[in-house]
Amino acid sequence: LYEYEARTGRMYKPPPPSTRRKNIEFEPLSTTALILEDRPANLPAKSVEEALRHRQEYDEMVAEAKKREIKEAHKRKKIMRERFKQEDNIASAMVIWINEILPNWEGMRATRRVRELWWQGLPPSVRGKVWSLAVGNELNITPELYEIFLSRAKERWKSFSETNSENDVEDVSASVADREASLELIKLDISRTFPSLYIFQKGGPYHDLLHSVLGAYTCYRPDVGYVQGMSFIAAVLILNLEEADAFIAFANLLNKPCQLAFFRVDHSMMLKYFAAFEVFFEENLPKLFLHFKSYSLTPDIYLIDWIFTLYSKSLPLDLACRVWDVFCRDGEEFLFRTGLGILRLYEDILLQMDFIHIAQFLTKLPEDITSEKLFSCIAAIQMQNSNKKWAQVFASLMKDNKEGDKNHSPALKS
């Protein structure tokens, strides 16, 4: 203290205890408050004007920080309110599904009220049951039949591990067909299925279950075998259904015309689906359609991955389940309507991109995509072209193809 007085020639006056930061409700970070601090003793003191300016700057910083804090608090409250509202809606919807709809399924499933409720998303507690009923069981698979094919798969796994070394496995996987049917590919794909969840990884609670469903299917449908992407579909079903029910839904789902065409790599049928998609693409998003055309960017570049996994790999899991809800209600048409909804959602961004960036963007969609935004865009997509609906457009493409085949038949020419 004495040294300070001797060096500066001024008497030391301690600052009043309550003058600084008085009546400030928001306490800023210490670095923000540094602007109010006096200069070190070996430097000239602040002028009155500078001190006042610093006080003003500080007050402005505090006000801005407080504004941001209030804005963030309002945002958090809004999110919580929406979450509580969503939970209330799910709870009330669950009661309606359990007490009214499911006991009277056949009579109520096609009513306007049920279809509207369905569009809003199924409550997780009834999702698996509704999916099973909507997909149906045209193949008449029973839990006992599943056990038979699972036993066969286990026998194959056992003989496979006994007779093949790692080198042999590589030989077995030489051709594409063999590779797709091989157990090694199933093992590889299981570890790649929802890796962030860890539940399907080796040692995870659902690893063996997923392995069983996929293995049993390759024995049940050797003509289809195992194809990459199947693991995502089976995994979503396993998360919502018991093991045997998941297998029954899986086998019936993959037996639908669209899935069968894609998983059997039926190029002719796949091209028809792409052509039908482009009809509605041009109808709904003409500017983006022409932009894609200018780069010769065809639907197979992005649609194959979306259709193969029913969007479960491309979208956040909860949003993918929401897409599945309406897909089970509307069938294959909704898969392509969802694709158009995604393109509509990101139309402005995609119009600014070239071929490479569009392909990269659509292969890995943004993670912040929300169900509200996507379903709002899907709802805006009109699945009607010249008064023809999806099924009619697809049927006319199939008819044109058959007539074209007749016209080009060597037998007819001779």
From TrEMBL:
Residue stretches making up the Rab-GAP TBC domain: 121-331
GO CC list: cytoplasmic vesicle; vacuole
An individual GO BP term: vesicle-mediated transport
Coiled-coil intervals, chain numbering: 48-83
Domain of life: Eukaryota
Family annotation (InterPro entries): Rab-GAP-TBC_dom (IPR000195), Rab-GAP_TBC_sf (IPR035969), Rab_GAP_TBC_domain (IPR050302)
Spans traversing the lipid bilayer: none
GO molecular function terms noted in the UniProt entry: GTPase activator activity; small GTPase binding
Alphabetical list of Pfam families matching this protein: RabGAP-TBC (PF00566)
Keywords annotated in UniProt: Coiled coil
PANTHER family assigned to the protein according to its UniProt record, in alphabetical order: RAB GTPASE-ACTIVATING PROTEIN 1-LIKE, TBC1 DOMAIN FAMILY MEMBER 12 ISOFORM X1
Protein name: TBC1 domain family member 12
Organism: Chrysolophus pictus
